[in-house]
Amino acid sequence: SAVISQKPSRDICQRGTSLTIQCQVDSQVTMMFWYRQQPGQSLTLIATANQGSEATYESGFVIDKFPISRPNLTFSTLTVSNMSPEDSSIYLCSVEAGYGYTFGSGTRLTVV
Amino acid sequence: SQQGEEDPQALSIQEGENATMNCSYKTSINNLQWYRQNSGRGLVHLILIRSNEREKHSGRLRVTLDTSKKSSSLLITASRAADTASYFCATKLTGGGNKLTFGTGTQLKVEL
What we know:
The structure holds 2 protein chains of 2 kinds.
Chain A: E1 4-7, E2 10-13, E3 19-25, E4 31-37, E5 43-50, E6 56-57, E7 68-72, E8 75-80, E9 89-96, E10 101-103, E11 107-111
Parallel strand pairs in A: 2-11
Antiparallel strand pairs in A: 1-3, 3-8, 4-5, 4-9, 5-6, 7-8, 9-10, 9-11
Chain B: E1 4-7, E2 10-14, E3 19-25, E4 29-37, E5 43-50, E6 55-58, E7 61-66, E8 71-76, E9 85-93, E10 101-102, E11 106-111
């Protein structure tokens, strides 16, 4: 199954700034998925990133706040823009891989 | 929004005992998957059960699926301290494309 390298693993950021999270997959995949996990909560899908087209955002998430890039079939970035303390969460990328999905190790973001 | 509700929210057992977690979902599914998450890090895929399957085994794991009741259960037999983690069910919805929708999760603690 695919292996995902996600970075940074954690960061502490000032409110009003932006953070870009990167995910590198060791094989080519059509879709990459970005999730948010708020403290003590389950995972919520932010968007699906397809190579060569605009990402598809879920209800409640907008491109201005969470711009996504997908320059090729092995790489994607998620930016959390104009951060506020409410953005403090774990952010995870994921790809479908055979039976089930593979996840990156997550980025733990704290906004102060 | 969450597709699945899991119960219990938290479960504490002694090593060697069995742990059972339940997941209920709302709409028609293609398959249901179970994941484990250690300490808020990346998720690990445990097992997938298709909508036309009723039971599946993998090592110490046993999963059942009842599509008439829209529910699934995960049984971990002979639990170990290393099984301490959060467990999530996730559904791939019929007509929902490739994305997963996660349940609320069960926090399992296995004590020595």
